[in-house]
Amino acid sequence: MNVNGRHYRTIWLNDNGWAVDIIDQTKFPHVFETVTLRSTDDAAVAIRDMLVRGAPLIGVTAAYGMALAMRTDASDAALARAYDQLVKTRPTAINLKWALDEMMKSLSPLPQSDRLWAAYARAAEIADEDVAINQSIGRNGFDIIKSIAAKKKPGETINILTHCNAGWLATVDWGTATAPIYTAHDAGLPIHVWVDETRPRNQGASLTAWELLHHGVPHTVIPDNTGGHLMQHGQVDMAIVGTDRTTAQGDVCNKIGTYLKALAAHDNGVPFYVALPSPTIDFNVVDGVKEIPIEQRSGIEVSHMSGLTRDGRIETVEIVPRGSRVANYAFDVTPAKYVTGLITERGVIAANRVAIAKAFPERAV
Ligand code: MRU
Predict the structure, then answer these.
(1) Average pLDDT in the 227-245 region?
(2) Residue 332 among the catalytic residues
(3) From ligand 1's centre to the CA of 109, what distance in Å?
(4) Which of 59, 164, 231, 243 could link 255 by a cystine bridge, Cβ 3.0 to 4.6 Å?
(5) Rounded to the nearest whole angstrom, what is the distance from the C-alpha of residue 256 to the centroid of ligand 1?
């Protein structure tokens, strides 16, 4: 994506050739700042504290975290240590484990002397694969948007609702849910995006809105509770969301609040699509509601909010009475029956066991 005329990915090798640069997403939307990761500890902190977030980007950062570990010690013990440290940083997005398993598969058969270069090469490959996957999701999702546009009057706006940030910032480039949006917008279709603010961390308001603004895509930020009302009044043509883990039977785990949007979409006959890169499929899990571990984060994210003051400072304020308990479930699961289709890099498929296994037979267990 272009930021102030310069093309950025969200993660790249530092000019020194070994450290890893990222964009600190905790500072958005008011500050664009990069941070350099120099060790596995740095990578683990960046994932845990959400300087990087979004399932695919978490995976790529973890892969580079393994590469950084190989700089000081390429033994089997060091590999296992780095894997264990990184895999525990966030529990829900399966891309983290997927990327670490890929690194292990590539590195453990090699002699120690070959592991350092191989680790950087595989991490770079995983990053490039993410970009290619998202571009394909963009093309496949674009076909759906075109078919919706074909049913409207020429030039009529296509309204798409999205939740959280499954955008450029959640991936290496393009995004998953945003890839079809960017592709359609770039092709000249009149797209407008309803952006759920996505409390408590406001990834919609601070990240998705920022991206769409920079790319010139018309959009409106709405409080999380607004989508149902808009759907009842015919103001949403389709929803596209991302996913942190999709089960073998097509249940979709994504940012808290996704499930409510899927219910509202179902009640109003609004197509509800999930952009699904294949590393996000967990073939070991079937029933998402029962089996996917849901991250619970600090209550501070609920009881406090940060923003820009009139004199340009970032300030955090308390919005809940002291003494009230708060709960902060970061994700929920949308059962497959509410998903109109999964937009994957291999085409748009049904959210069920047969279709998913048929599309990705090499991964199915
Ligand atoms: O807690 P986050 O910000 O990491 O959650 C991100 C999401 O829920 C995204 O929708 C998901 O990771 C898909 S990103 C392509």
Answers:
(1) 98
(2) no
(3) 32
(4) 164
(5) 10
Ligand 1 atom with least separation from CA of 280: 13
pLDDT, one tens digit per residue, over 156-193 is 999 999 999 999 999 999 999 999 999 999 999 999 99
**d(C-alpha 24, C-alpha 52), whole Å:** 7
- Residue range 2-128 in CATH 3.40.50.150: no
Write down the mean pLDDT value for the chain. Answer: 97
Flag whether pLDDT at 273 surpasses 90.
Answer: yes
Pocket of ligand 1 (CB under 6 A): 53-56, 93, 164, 166, 170-171, 176, 203, 242-244, 254-255, 330
CATH number corresponding to 134-359? 3.40.50.10470
The rounded Å distance from CA 316 to ligand 1 centre is 23
> Per-domain residue ranges for the chain?
2-128, 134-359
Ligand 1 nearest-atom number relative to CA 330 = 1
* pLDDT at residue 1 is higher than 90: no
- Kindly give the number of the ligand 1 atom that is closest to the alpha carbon of 177: 15
Of the listed 130, 196, 237, 244, which one is catalytic?
A: 244
pLDDT of residue 2: 84
